Amino acid sequence: MLALLAACRPDPGLSDYENQGGPSLPTDGGTEPDPDVLPGPFPYQTGQRRLGVGFYEGGRSDDIPVDNTTTHVYLYENTVTMEPSPTRVEGKSADLAVHAGKAWLGFGVHWDATRDLRAWKTLHVSLRSSDPGFASVKVGMGDSAKSVQLDVAKYGYKNDGAWHHLAIPLTEFTAGGLQPGAVNSPFQLIAGAGAPADKLLLDNLYFTAE
């Protein structure tokens, strides 16, 4: 099933994630950060270029928040539910993906209008799971024509219950045919078959210009 999904653009269907409250709301950190807000493995420094697209609470220079109007998180074909979790690496909470027990699982951030991401060079995300349903995980990006999905084991993910902080060059997506000047889905996560309630933690999702 994953091979088929890798070749096709995921159909988001209905935006049912909006009824679950959306991803963890971002904060700007402020001049006096809340001590409960973790800075993350690579804290934002003033002057850096960093783009948030949802699932990120840390400092950033640019932001395209999930507003459930023109930007959305879609859960593909009821294969997953999402909920906040205090087990995090940055901010006040992470997002917990819970498997629905189907033959595959998927969700993603989708924009109604395409955006030019050619100024951004690297996608960063932190993942954690030891459940069999997340032994094989792919991260994708999409344009209006296709979705390009990459096996995250290549970038350091292991299904061992530890946090893994991944840095994926956008050139890896463009090599697969992504048009970076016309992106309408900056992040997708796809996994294989799993038992109901298999879980994966997601946190610390952002893009950098280097």
Provide an overview of this structure.
This is Lipoprotein. It comes from Archangium gephyra. The chain has a single domain, classed as Jelly Rolls (Sandwich), CATH 2.60.120. The protein is 6% helix and 37% strand. It contains 2 helices and 14 strands, in the order H-E-E-E-E-E-E-E-E-E-E-E-E-H-E-E. Strands 2, 3, 5, 7, 9, 12 and 14 form a 7-stranded mixed beta sheet that branches. It has a 5-stranded antiparallel beta sheet with strand order 4-8-13-10-11. A hairpin with a 3-residue loop joins strand 10 and strand 11. The protein is globular and about 40 Å long. The termini are far apart.
CATH superfamily grouping: Galactose-binding domain-like
What would CATH call the architecture? Sandwich
Oligomer: single chain
Integer count of domains: 1
Strand pairing plus helix content: what structural class?
Answer: mainly beta
The shape, in one word, is globular
CA-CA gap between termini? 34 Å
Number of strands: 14
Helix content: under 10%
Largest sheet: 7 strands, mixed
Number of helices: 2
Quote the average pLDDT. 89
**In CATH's first tier, which class applies?**
Mainly Beta
* Strand residues, percent: 35-45%
Could you name the CATH topology?
Jelly Rolls
Order of helices and strands: HEEEEEEEEEEEEHEE
Uncertain residue segments: 1-9, 11-21, 25-31
Q: Mind telling me the C-alpha Rg?
A: 16 Å
Region (Disordered): 12-43
Protein name: Lipoprotein
Organism: Archangium gephyra
Keywords: Lipoprotein
